[in-house]
Specification:
269 residues; alpha/beta; seven-stranded parallel sheet; 13% strand
Length: 269
Amino acid sequence: MLKGKTALVTGSTGGIGEAFARAFAAQGCNVMMNGMGEAAVIEKLRASIAREHGVKVAFHDADVGVPTQIEAMVRETGRQFGGVDILVNNAVVRHYDRIEDFPVEKWDRAIAVDLSAAFHTIRLTLRGMKQRGWGRIINMSSIHGRMAVPNRVDYVTAKHAIIGMTRGVALEIADTGVTINARMPGWVLTPHAEGQIARQMAATGDSREKALDALLKVRQPSQRPIMPADIAAFGVFLCSGPGAHINGAALPIDGAWQAGFMLTVGNST
């Protein structure tokens, strides 16, 4: 049912975003990719996805922290493909610091990329979805959209706010044929996670397997990392016929991390 539709995926030059681009291409969607990286590497990725699935795949280098560049990206997607049917807001930046030491420019950048970018992509694409009577919007929140951690005030704030935005928009579009949902992944084996593993190995001298186990023990009760392709497959389901009944939801995919956290809190009181 997705063949011929167009998916715009921000932050799709690697990790979860790349998995979304591949998954929608596999369903016959044309894809507009977006993100950071070396031009030659991105072009190789774009061409390989297009060749593998026989669909049109384009790339736009918009900095989604800048509204005018988002507007240009949406316009170009419309020019090439006729409009956006599926929108995945996945782009993210991170900074780690205590709030009293948090650089103001890092805060402003995080809110622009992690939160305001979703506002702009939605406002620019929703009208067309409503006119066509069908659309799917997937906002990437996080397990930290429900649970706070120290020294990550930008990320935690934005991911909480993404859920609120999702719910507010869902009520506006409930009868239009368009749905919007937030995804709340736990620990996904992305390049960012690989960096955490490498730092754990350097700090302890452990093997990769032991470092991975140590990181999982303080996170996911399942003791298994989530793969980007699993996140994307869930997104494809949200675009299916049965997925039409899911709207305004904050959907965890976290190996029982959130459930385990609540259990721990309950046992400590």
